[in-house]
Amino acid sequence: TFANAFRILRLDNSDVEGDITAWDISTTAGMQTFVLTSCPLLTGNIGGWTLDSSLVTFQVGNTGLSGDITGLVVPASMDYMYLNQTGLFGVPDLSGATGIRELYMYSCGLSQAQVDAVLAHIYTNRAVYNHTSAPVLLLHGTNAAPSGAYADEDPPTTGNGYRYELVNDPEAEGFRKWSITVSS
Questions:
Q1: What is the pTM of this model?
Q2: What is the pLDDT of residues 148-180, one digit of tens each?
Q3: Rounded distance, CA 133 to CA 146, Å?
Q4: Which end is more exposed in the chain, N or C (fewer Cβ atoms within 10 Å of the end residue's Cβ)?
Q5: What SS3 state is found at 180?
Q6: Phi/psi at 27 (nearest 5 deg)?
Q7: Burial class (CB in 10 A: 0-12, 13-18, 19+), 112
Q8: Which of 156, 148, 106 is nearest to 126 (CA)?
Q9: Which residues contact 9 (CB under 8 A, 6 or more apart)?
């Protein structure tokens, strides 16, 4: 566990090594930034982690970390979540992440079903996101392309149908429109 005074944990381009599965960042009470990038010797399954409710930025990239993050609840305080070039997969629970600005799941090797699930999850919760600017979603790189054609579907049933709805709001529901980049 970490001391409550931890506000920022940032490891970039580091030779730090070891399995961090047992780290408990939910006990930090005030941690705002958690960044592990270009630390290929860090390993472990973080699928069972709980994120502190004060986190604003969560970034994991180019590490040996893995795990199904479907159960990872993204807190309302989260503005930025970047996952790139990792073994992390699944759909984090964004239903309470009302202030999310940027969600990057770049080159995570997501299957078409996983990409579709991310888009469907965001579509289902589209009314809760209230940041003042358009949220950004990046799902490209080594991720599969979403299913279906990029077109209006009522109701959407394919990945590209969800994407079209989120980008264009063709029914004028008034939710915050998204900027979305996917693999093609």
A1: 0.90
A2: 999 999 999 999 999 999 999 999 999 999 999
A3: 24
A4: C
A5: strand
A6: -95, 10
A7: middle
A8: 156
A9: 2, 25, 31, 33, 34, 35, 36
